[in-house]
Amino acid sequence: MFTTQTGAEEVTEAVGNALVDFLHAWATPLWIIGIIIGAVIANWVLLRILNRTVTQIVRGVKRSQNVDTTSEMRAAPYIHARAVQRTRTLGSVGRAVVTWTVAVIALILILGRLQVDLGAVLTSAGIVAAGLAFGAQNIVKDVLNGIFMVFEDQLGVGDVVTVDQITGTVEEVGIRVTKVRALDGTLWFIRNGEILTLGNSSQGWGRALVDFTVDARQDLEHVSDVAVSAARTLLSSDQFARKVTGEPEVLGLESVFGDRATLRLAIRTRPEAQWEVQRGIRAELRRKFAEENIRLADELPRQPKGEI
């Protein structure tokens, strides 16, 4: 009986010692694996919270305007649509910041577990960063310019912008690269540091400009009155009423060439609505001019004339 108990105790002790040796041998790898798993989980949770916050803000603004899509909201007060676009932009940048922050913290914890001198590492990193600042000036420039563009609200996700020869809709604003979807569907990747001149058609207000050429021998004052009347008729419709913020006006005579006179009609619109308003006005002008027997340039015979 005594012998059996002694043998069992020895086996238990041997198993315990083996387990202790195993934990000592694998403690560091297990800690590293645990840190990596914890970092992945923390990153996932933080991104979920960030995405949920962005979604709730966007839904709240849409609910207050009683619309379902952001495109509909562009006809609503400018500040609400801008709040949605700015929230999405900051969310896009925030996701990158969260991921990088979690990765850096996880790396520091792993180095600490490996008993690496963090002070020396940080000092070396500072020296390397100083060296890279000279060799990677473009990257630093891209990052800094991207941060300033976001916080100065120069552009946002959903904005229609023009950068150099590229015109399109902003799909994503990153810390280093901005993605712009052109009108033909091409997705452009533009380095933030290369954006020197930026035109944003989605901020403040727009202006619909329509040039029309008629027979110069007609009463141009009457033509102007008919043009304004046509624009007012169109803009009183449900489709265009909420897209306009001003009254139509003929700015005057733009040019005269022989028996052709070109006039310009202008009207202030909400952001991004100017192109749709222009198309609608052109169709309405043609219909109204036909009713008033006003001859457009394409209805005149081709005769070479000198420019006045």
UniProtKB/TrEMBL annotation:
<feature type="domain" description="Mechanosensitive ion channel MscS">
    <location>
        <begin position="138"/>
        <end position="197"/>
    </location>
</feature>
<protein>
    <submittedName>
        <fullName>Mechanosensitive ion channel family protein</fullName>
    </submittedName>
</protein>
<dbReference type="InterPro" id="IPR045276">
    <property type="entry name" value="YbiO_bact"/>
</dbReference>
<dbReference type="InterPro" id="IPR006685">
    <property type="entry name" value="MscS_channel_2nd"/>
</dbReference>
<dbReference type="InterPro" id="IPR010920">
    <property type="entry name" value="LSM_dom_sf"/>
</dbReference>
<feature type="transmembrane region" description="Helical">
    <location>
        <begin position="30"/>
        <end position="50"/>
    </location>
</feature>
<dbReference type="InterPro" id="IPR011066">
    <property type="entry name" value="MscS_channel_C_sf"/>
</dbReference>
<keyword id="KW-0812">Transmembrane</keyword>
<keyword id="KW-0472">Membrane</keyword>
<dbReference type="Pfam" id="PF00924">
    <property type="entry name" value="MS_channel_2nd"/>
</dbReference>
<feature type="transmembrane region" description="Helical">
    <location>
        <begin position="92"/>
        <end position="112"/>
    </location>
</feature>
<keyword id="KW-1003">Cell membrane</keyword>
<dbReference type="InterPro" id="IPR023408">
    <property type="entry name" value="MscS_beta-dom_sf"/>
</dbReference>
<feature type="transmembrane region" description="Helical">
    <location>
        <begin position="118"/>
        <end position="140"/>
    </location>
</feature>
<keyword id="KW-1133">Transmembrane helix</keyword>
